[in-house]
Structures are given as structure tokens and as C-alpha cells.
């Protein structure tokens, strides 16, 4: 009798142990087991590899010398670190001056769009204005009208005003929140301000605050997540923009970095047609790309936590 009871206890213990192992591997719920977590990590690693491989290839190529570039056995890890390609790209791009132009242009556009679109988004979200739905419909139409349709009249106006080969034709529209970017940012602000409680405005009105004071003293401090999202989107969008600078700044000697890459690529093509291709051409292209993307990467590195939080709070992930 004692042996039978002991065997039953051992069987129960084994079943409990197997049950614990099963719950640890599969989980009581579908999204809490080890297999599900391994599957998620596998997807994340694959996605990270897809995005990181071009950057790693760019860095590995730009630090190779001619011998490593010609050797098919050298793929990811060069035998020696060669910075001559990076120095050559630096001098061709006139990097310090071009970097200053890109930073000034991107910061100016980002700040102006952040402020002007905040005002417009607050008006659409909280104020009672005539024909608000009609105006918002026209705002949505800017998603449909491509930039190429309106660029020719804008170039004509800029030429008549003597503003060609200056950054003003790019900065001034940002002050009024024009274009596809402006419409997107207005919608982001409208979505954020619409979710704020009305009691805040009512309390401010009781204290004697007007519309402008409510906006700057009450709503704007709450809109820090939306402000950060709009600022970063606008900055990166303007930093990477090639189309508008190529329309307005094509004749100046020192252009933004987005134009500098194209000018270097064109110079390399002409050099290859005249003297034949060089083994360092690809490394120089990678070096110019690295110099172009390193400032946004540094910016995102220091702001990614607040950026992700801002995207969640503005409703862009819904």
C-alpha cells in the first residue's frame, strides 16, 4: 500500500514538472511562452539585419584601400583602416560649409513648421471658426496635389522676387505650413489637441485667459510629445530633401549635403567617362553617404526615447 502511494506521488510530481515545462515553453497564454518570444526575437533580428546591413556595408566599404577593394576575399573586415576616401569626400563636398547650410536650412524649416502647424492644428481641433470642415477638406487635398504641379509657378515667383539661389523660397512656405509636410503636421497636432480635456481650457477662461494665452500657456506645454515628433519629422524630411534644393539652389557653388552627394556622383561619372572607372569610386560614394547621414543618426540616438513616446502619445501608431 505504501509503495502504491509513493508511485502515485511520483507520478503526480512528474506530471506537475511536465506541466511547468510545458507552460514555460508554450505558456498559459499564446503570447507569453518561450516559443512565442523566440519567434518575436527572430523577427526583430531579421528586421534589424535588413536595416543595418546597408549601413554596415557602407562603413566597411568606405574604409577600404585599393588593395582591399580589389581583393574578393575581403568582404566585411578590411585588412587596414584607410581614411583617404573619407578625406577626399570631405574636401569634394566642402563639408563644413555644406553642413552649415544643411543645418541652417533644416533647423529653420523645422522650427517654423513646428510653430505654424501647431497654431493651425489647435484652431482645427478646439476653435469654432466658420467653414472649418471646408477648410480642413482643402487641407486634405494637399495630400493629392503633388509638389511637381506647383513647383513651376513657385520658381517663376521666386525669380521675379530675386530669391533664386537662396534658401528663402524653401523657408518662407514653411512659415505658413504649406505643402504635404505642413498638412501632415497639422493633422498630427489636431489629433493631439483633440484628445486633451476641455476642462483645462474652461479653467483658464475662468481665470481670464484668452485664446492666445490658453494656446501658449496651457496647450503648448502639454504638446511637447507632438512638438518633438513634428520637429524631428520636419528636420529629417528637409535634411534628406533633394528635390526643392535642386530647383532653387542648383546654381550656387556650395549647396546642402543632399545636393553635394549628387554633384559628387555626377563628377565621378564624368571622370569615369573621360579616364575610365576608378577602383575608389564606390568607396568615395559610400563616404559621402556616411557624411550625409551621420548628423541625423546622432540626433536620433539622443532623442529616440522621447521620439517613440511622442509617436505613441500623438496617436500615429493607432
From TrEMBL:
Task: Extract the SUPFAM superfamilies matched here.
Answer: MetI-like
Instruction: Cite the ABC transmembrane type-1 domain residue spans from the record.
Output: 99-303
Alphabetized, the UniProt keywords read: Cell membrane, Membrane, Transmembrane, Transmembrane helix, Transport
Query: What are the subcellular locations of this protein?
Result: Cell membrane
Q: Tell me what topology the record assigns in the membrane.
A: Multi-pass membrane protein
UniProt cross-references to PROSITE patterns, sorted A to Z: ABC_TM1
Q: Which Pfam families match?
A: BPD_transp_1
Cross-referenced CDD domains: TM_PBP2 (cd06261)
Q: Where do the TM regions start and end?
A: 34-52, 98-122, 134-155, 167-189, 222-239, 283-303
Where is this protein primarily located? membrane
User: Would you identify the family this protein belongs to, as annotated?
Assistant: Belongs to the binding-protein-dependent transport system permease family.
Q: What is this protein called?
A: Carbohydrate ABC transporter permease
Taxonomy of origin reads:
Bacteria, Bacillati, Bacillota, Bacilli, Bacillales
Amino acid at each position: 500500500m505504501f509503495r502504491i502511494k509513493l508511485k502515485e506521488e511520483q507520478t503526480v510530481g512528474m506530471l506537475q514538472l511536465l506541466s511547468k515545462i510545458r507552460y514555460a515553453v508554450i505558456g498559459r497564454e499564446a503570447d507569453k511562452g518561450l516559443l512565442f518570444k523566440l519567434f518575436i526575437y527572430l523577427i526583430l533580428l531579421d528586421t534589424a539585419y535588413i536595416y543595418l546591413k546597408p549601413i554596415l556595408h557602407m562603413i566597411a566599404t568606405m574604409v577600404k584601400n585599393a588593395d582591399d577593394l580589389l581583393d574578393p576575399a575581403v568582404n566585411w573586415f578590411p585588412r587596414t583602416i584607410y581614411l583617404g576616401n573619407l578625406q577626399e569626400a570631405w574636401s569634394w563636398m566642402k563639408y563644413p560649409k555644406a553642413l552649415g547650410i544643411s543645418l541652417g536650412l533644416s533647423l529653420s524649416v523645422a522650427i517654423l513648421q513646428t510653430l505654424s502647424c501647431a497654431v493651425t492644428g489647435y484652431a482645427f481641433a478646439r476653435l469654432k471658426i466658420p467653414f472649418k470642415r471646408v477648410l480642413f477638406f482643402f487641407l486634405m487635398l494637399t495630400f493629392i496635389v503633388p509638389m511637381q504641379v506647383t513647383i513651376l509657378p513657385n520658381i517663376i515667383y521666386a525669380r521675379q522676387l530675386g530669391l533664386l539661389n537662396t534658401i528663402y523660397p524653401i523657408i518662407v512656405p514653411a512659415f505658413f505650413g504649406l505643402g504635404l509636410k505642413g498638412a501632415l503636421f497639422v493633422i498630427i497636432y489636431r489629433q493631439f489637441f483633440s484628445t486633451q480635456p476641455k476642462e483645462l481650457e474652461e479653467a483658464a477662461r475662468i481665470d481670464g485667459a484668452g485664446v492666445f494665452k490658453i494656446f501658449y500657456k496651457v496647450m503648448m506645454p502639454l504638446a511637447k510629445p507632438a512638438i518633438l515628433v513634428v520637429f524631428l519629422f520636419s528636420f529629417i524630411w528637409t535634411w534628406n530633401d533633394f528635390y526643392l534644393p535642386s530647383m532653387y539652389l542648383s546654381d550656387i557653388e556650395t549647396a546642402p549635403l543632399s545636393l553635394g552627394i549628387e554633384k559628387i556622383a555626377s563628377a565621378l561619372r564624368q571622370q569615369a567617362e573621360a579616364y575610365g572607372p576608378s577602383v575608389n569610386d564606390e568607396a568615395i560614394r559610400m563616404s559621402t553617404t556616411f557624411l550625409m547621414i551621420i548628423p541625423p543618426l546622432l540626433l536620433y540616438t539622443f532623442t529616440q526615447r522621447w521620439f517613440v513616446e511622442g509617436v505613441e502619445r500623438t496617436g500615429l501608431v493607432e
